């Protein structure tokens, strides 16, 4: 009933689609600041939308693209606020 080839292929797909990305995210959490990992993970919907469009020729609705744009804008905002706050903190240290 179950063919070994199909079972092997299913296990390979499971490994590449779930276990490998999860282990890479855990490795990133250990090596990168949590803020950077959070921003990168929040950009995953944009990457998935673009991959779907370019590789699979899938079309997202206007509302879905708006949602992707809002998540991306929030990521950019988080980086901009952190960067400007960090720069101000360093300027404050320079004046002491």
Automatic annotation (TrEMBL):
<feature type="domain" description="EamA">
    <location>
        <begin position="9"/>
        <end position="76"/>
    </location>
</feature>
<keyword id="KW-1133">Transmembrane helix</keyword>
<feature type="transmembrane region" description="Helical">
    <location>
        <begin position="63"/>
        <end position="81"/>
    </location>
</feature>
<dbReference type="Pfam" id="PF00892">
    <property type="entry name" value="EamA"/>
</dbReference>
<keyword id="KW-0472">Membrane</keyword>
<comment type="similarity">
    <text>Belongs to the EamA transporter family.</text>
</comment>
<dbReference type="InterPro" id="IPR000620">
    <property type="entry name" value="EamA_dom"/>
</dbReference>
<keyword id="KW-0812">Transmembrane</keyword>
<dbReference type="InterPro" id="IPR037185">
    <property type="entry name" value="EmrE-like"/>
</dbReference>
<protein>
    <submittedName>
        <fullName>EamA family transporter</fullName>
    </submittedName>
</protein>
């Amino acid at each position: 009933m179950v063919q070994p080839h199909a079972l092997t292929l299913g296990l390979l797909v499971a490994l590449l689609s779930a276990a490998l990305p999860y282990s890479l995210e855990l490795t990133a959490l250990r090596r990168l600041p949590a803020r950077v990992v959070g921003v990168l993970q929040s950009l995953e919907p944009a990457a998935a939308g673009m991959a779907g469009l370019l590789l699979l020729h899938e079309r997202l609705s206007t509302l879905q693209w708006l949602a992707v744009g809002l998540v991306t804008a929030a990521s950019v905002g988080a980086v901009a606020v952190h960067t400007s706050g960090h720069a101000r903190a360093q300027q404050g240290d320079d004046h002491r």
